[in-house]
């Protein structure tokens, strides 16, 4: 593929992203639940019995918000489109599978970032001040792509029944929350928890966000961002390779 | 005239089943090609391979000079595809569906808007442009899908059962658009179960059975291949049994449709004489007696061993 064709495919991926946003994200129930989710998370944590400093709390809340929203819809886009036969339409058009996947990822990332900004604003209103905006913005952008790639990867099994993927998605997503240093710093986890935390990209996102608020974390900033980038690349490559194999089985 | 579609030794297996077995054919530019076959014969699999939706296990597909396997993006850019089931986005409006197709085919925005307006007008959908597709009737959906396939002015158009289950006016509109497109030089590859449609539209038809292409020619030439089959259609005032007709010599096949008997024999003249003799002998009154020319249905039924779609 030459650079002109790559450029065209990126533009077409953006068209897929806009279509996804219109069809799957820009819906009142999705938007309302997106806004309510961080509100409820704040309420749940603030009303907890154990007082937690806001600067610690906010990194976990941003992590959960971005992780859940970026992986909320992306796993079921492929099953839905397979069921509605619209995937067949896309595949018969001059758009590469990589561009379809990129488009789905962009849409999911945009939604994740938009809801996370709401959580960020609530945090600012509650007095959580950011020490390093550049690091925080880089972390949110990279985290959104990484978590969206997880969502896309979860949709690889070639089922046309979205509920099957939702179940798989729940089984993968919830354990990650408990091993990623959201509820307590990674270095305070038991030894098994500390080892498991290393294989979760959410660990590095939570840690780097914590650094951007408090100045201190379990790992250096470069390591956190590097690991997020590495996870993103690996997850995207795996998604593309596996979706290319299973896409014909959905049609 | 060069080839719009060139298929060589195309093969596809699903597990131990060979869905398409080394088929080869070509469709010349400017032709309307009808692809016929009973259900499960391999029509859809073949069409999906030619349109680049699934990859063949073996064989070559050239679309307007581009290899569909090695250069699918360039090949697909030249094609429009209309599937049997409408696959427009139901949560988008007709206009948004057309604009999305414009973006996917890389059309300039102004051109896509102009084309969309023209096509919506041609398919009598202008006043529904802002409505979501989920509220459309089947005919409206099919017209929209055809408009979406024509937006980028493809040189080659693939249609799968374009008029199946549609009301008469939608069906006529689509068929007249196809004739118009073809007059302007668009090559059309049509998968259909409708023999009349194939007979009236197509320059050439191919018939597939059990994954193999068993005939390919113009409808008239195909009909001539079974001209040896002579048929008459007769109706008697009295009710008679099939056994009475079976005693006539040279009978190949008898079918009873409504108040008529359709009889195939080896010799048309002998068949008519036998029927007249039979009616005299049995005191029957002939109400009508017609000789029948073979239809594309007959060709199809004979070549597919009586399997209808």
How would you explain this protein's 3D organization?
- The complex is a heterodimer of chains A (251) and B (309).
- Chain A is globular.
- Chain A contains 11 helices and no strands.
- Chain A has one domain.
- Chain A is 77% helix and 0% strand.
- In chain A, α1 (3-25) packs across α6 (97-125).
- Chain A is mostly helical.
- Chain A has helices at residues 3-25, 28-46, 54-70, 74-83, 86-91, 97-125, 133-154, 162-178, 191-197, 201-214, 221-250.
- Chain B has 309 residues and is α/β, with parallel strands linked by helices.
- Chain B has 2 domains: 3-218, 3-Layer(aba) Sandwich (Rossmann fold), CATH 3.40.50; 228-293, Alpha-Beta Plaits.
- Chain B contains 11 helices and 14 strands.
- A 6-stranded mixed beta sheet of chain B has the order 6-7-8-3-9-10, sandwiched between helices.
- Classes of the chains: A mainly alpha (251), B alpha/beta (309).
- At the A-B interface, α1 and α5 of A face α2 and α3 of B.
